[in-house]
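can u pls check wat happens w/ 2-phosphoglyceric acid
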Amino acid sequence: MTNMLILLRHGQSEWNEKNLFTGWVDVRLTERGRSEAARAGALLAESGVLPDVLHTSVLSRAIQTAHLALDSADRLWIPVRRSWRLNERHYGALQGLDKAETLQQYGEAQFMEWRRSFDTPPPALDDASEWSQAADPRYAGIDGERPRTECLKDVVERLVPYWEQEILPDLTGGSTVLVTAHGNSLRALVKHLEGISDADIAGLNIPTGMPLVYEVDDRGTPSGPGRYLDPEAAAAGAAAVAAQGR
Ligand SMILES: O=C(O)[C@@H](CO)OP(=O)(O)O
């Protein structure tokens, strides 16, 4: 049996607009981000890909995106699961820094190593930082696992168990699943789904607010690469993400 999986990065956030490293900082959508999310839901409705269950991160921008998209698709009523395991990659001490200034200060090689290498995390974020999540009640239950920085490899390691134990059973049970998450948590999931190498994943960028659809078999293997419902806009959006900081 084939099962439908929709991946959706949140719409433009306040910190995407300001060009700041975001990670686990809980910023909201901009006006543009809200319309991207609503349009994503309209695309789902037009294509007849209607979600039966939603999995989101615990960050507000992904939750807002899901709500707006499901509202346009008239599917606000579907069951919802939330997990920190779908959160954006924790950006460590880069959280809150301007991308262009960081590029200028540290140079292209270091900047890209932090942004897109598979296994080099940025320096850890101090618990006393104003951008730390140390006192955030939503992470109270995961103290041993709450990161202070993460590379993409760390995200794969915390996300794949959630994919296997929580998302895949919904899919193989016959539900069309919508996952609303983030640029780097979705890069981790796409890497796992499509078997992309540690080196090649550096070149993959996920645009904001663009539904990416997979047909997945009962073992979780997709029939082919993901298909954006609006490929042209998705390519332009991905190029804009790749160019951030420049
Ligand atoms: O700042 C972030 O958390 C991410 C996604 O917005 O940025 P980048 O694309 O640079 O990894």
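The beta strands are 3-9, 53-56, 80-82, 177-181, 212-216, 227-228.
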